[in-house]
Write a structure and sequence with these properties.
Blueprint lengths: L1 H27 L4 H30 L5 H6 L4 H11 L4 H8 L3 H15 L4 H10 L7
Helix pairs in contact: 1-2, 4-6, 5-6, 6-7
GO molecular function, one term: DNA binding
Protein name: Regulatory LuxR family protein
Organism: Ulvibacter antarcticus
């Protein structure tokens, strides 16, 4: 946590220095406003790339392993597992049916079987249980 605070503090300090230098250069007449804005845009672009890279690295390190054994213990079929993953993405029954090329009533059957196997009453509860059991990835 302290490292993150230091990084963002240094980032804010660097941005402040950049603003002050561009302000000074504009008043002195050595630098046009367009060039100062362009330089700041490029700096912010690279800062954004850096932060994005760090966040993606952190997410890949935090990825969990799917517990295949738990899926087998719960007797979740491969099709039910596909439905569960689509539910976790927030898809409706109609959207899941279109994605998996089956009827909507088939999806409703799979969902009700999933609720029984996971001992859930709602979709959100089923997703939470599945994540707690490490049988679906964090999205």
């Amino acid at each position: 946590m302290e490292k993150t605070i230091l990084i963002f503090g240094a980032l804010i300090l660097a941005i402040l220095v950049l603003f002050k230098l561009s302000n000074y250069a504009i008043y002195k007449g050595d630098l046009s406003i367009e060039l100062a804005i362009g330089v700041m845009a490029i700096v912010f672009f690279f800062i954004g790339l850096f932060i994005n890279k760090r966040l993606n690295n952190r997410k890949s390190q935090e990825s969990i392993e799917i517990d295949e054994q738990k899926i087998e213990e719960l007797q979740i079929s491969s099709r039910e597992y596909e439905v569960l993953c689509e539910i976790a993405k927030g898809a409706s029954n109609k959207e899941i049916a279109d994605t998996l090329f089956v009827s909507e009533s088939t999806i409703k059957t799979h969902v009700s079987k999933l609720f029984l196997k996971l001992d859930a009453k709602r979709r959100t509860q089923a997703i939470k249980i599945a994540k707690d059991l490490n049988i679906i990835p964090e999205l």
